[in-house]
User: Fold this.
Amino acid sequence: MLVMEDQLVYTPKDFKSSNEVRWCPGCGDHAIMAAIQKAMAGLGKKHEDYAVISGIGCSSRFPYYMSTYGFHTIHGRAAAIASGVKCANPELSVWQISGDGDALAIGGNHFIHTIRRNIDLNLILFNNKIYGLTKGQYSPTTDRGFVTKTSPFGTIEDPFIPGQLVLGSRGTFFARAIDNNVKLCQEVCEEAAKHEGTSVVEVLQNCVIFNEGVHAEISNPKTRADNQLHLVHGKPMLFGKENEKGIVWEHGHLKVVELGKDGYTIDDIMIHDAHEPSRAVHMALINMSLPEFPVAMGVIRAVKTDVYDEMMVKQIENVQAESKIKNMDDLLNSGDTWVVE
Amino acid sequence: MGELRLMKGNEVIAEAAIRCGCDGYFGYPITPQSEVMETLMIRRPWDETGMVVLQAESEVASINMLYGGASTGKKVMTSSSSPGISLMAEGLSYLAGAELPCLVVNVQRAGPGLGTIQPSQADYFQAVKGCGHGDYKLIVLAPASVQEMNDFVDLGFELAFKYKNPAMILTDGVIGQMMEKVELADFKPRWTKEEIQANCGDWACTGKKDRKRHVSTSLELDSELMEQNNLRFQAKYKEIEENEVRYEMIDCEDADYIIVAFGSAARICQKSMQIAREQGIKVGMLRPITLFPFPTKTIEELAGKVKGFISVEMSAGQMVEDVKLAVNGKVPVEYFGRYGGVVPTPGEIVDAMKQKLIGG
Ligand code: SF4
Assistant:
């Protein structure tokens, strides 16, 4: 920690706790934590102003490794507990760390309602499409047909696409990142922190033990330029090694085109508008999947609207201001009392 | 003689379910019992017997799937470990209130809260005193071997259907993870629709024609009628107490002191008894097999013959309360236990017995 002109300047190290990190070597969680520590160091808040809340699962060990306040709580309930923390102490910067099982299976109910309320917290969703802590059962994001310990002949269920749930719950912020791109993780976490309301960041995370390579097609350094589309608000949706490909909107659908081919030029390429309240294009971007499309990364949606905890504080202030009853004496004189004779 | 195999306790639960004609298993992964569902998934019972195996989105979903399945007169079950059973408390109360049969296996780990994944018996109160809200009881079976894990699946279903009440196998991580020789039961076919109509025709949703309307519910807003329902439940629990008490007595004939222990604690206590007897202390053991109904009468009878009891539990002392109620002050009742995931050693138990009960 440096002190410069009366201002605290943190380094990522200041957010590391002294606890031994017990994730498997090579687990994607290590990189995501490094990115979040970098993001927090740059946000100008003191580490005691953060509360990191997790449920149960591998990623839920996160609070132990952070030198911030934090709770390791109940399976599936992190969103409810984080909501309670934020409402009780709106000054804290509250971060929820959950895996796909924790947030979307047992915690699905709390997940959607927290987003619907738009409580100002940052929900980082580690998506490795498997239950790691209980050693390899399928999760609600596991792809249909995938073989796991509880689906030895392939699952017969379709997975949740987390972004769809977020938008379906009237989400105001959704971003996607991947564990082997620390810079991107850091950037989207910073954006999530700045956004007022529930910010959901889905991080595609590799579980080296029980689901090794689940996101390999997306993360592979050789192909990732073609398989990822990095969205930046106000910038054209270009991708490919030379930015030679782009996304256009045609007949109500997204389409991949090559610049200079079939008459397409840079002017035809869509400009990303993360602030657009309508969900249609954001949903289409969330739905893009290989092999037809690249996978959308970065901040897909960031729309400003009312925030629950602010409205809650305001409502209490208004009601108090308008109420004639300011103290006990006022209450006793309010007319709803009588003398026992 | 049935087929002999060397199996883990948790695996046997799965195998026994298939063999006893179980219709459906609904569960959610949790250590130390995920092998139950994993074994079922590998065994593919849906091909062999038509049994359904479903990984639910939570324990709350599992127990409510049981409610649905049980309402149709099917043999349905789930398994979990302590924190997961807490999530099922609501469902169990409703199942008991609606008088629906089902089987729940609790492979206990130490709490409270998330605790640890190490074994424990600290859910005794939760199992025998209700679990959820309201005046109700679960029929609770406590296996002390892999063989009993096998046997109690079928027995659990039998009792659950006989009394239209949820039954629970209360075991722990030791028995769940331990490997032992087991004689498997022969295959029993699943009940046919006709059999379900014959066995559960007056209450189950089977499509049977020309019968009285029945709604599977625990709700009755008229207090007088709700009291009648409760009186019926209490009469049923009394009947269970009269007819279904099961226990094992080891070397109690000449005993001066009695150890009361169930499940894995009873296994350890067998060794303690041996050590104590070698030292000339006449110790016997009463092992309750049913925790509800509890062998109260047997303990009461023993209390007239022995100098004292010690309840040995992997909890902070829960069953000891029921032992004390049964002994009713006739002779001293002591408790010894290790908990929080710690398993007591046979020597520790002997020492505790000498110190607390015998003196010196
Ligand atoms: S099991 Fe998988 S998710 Fe859990 S720590 Fe190991 S690699 Fe990471």
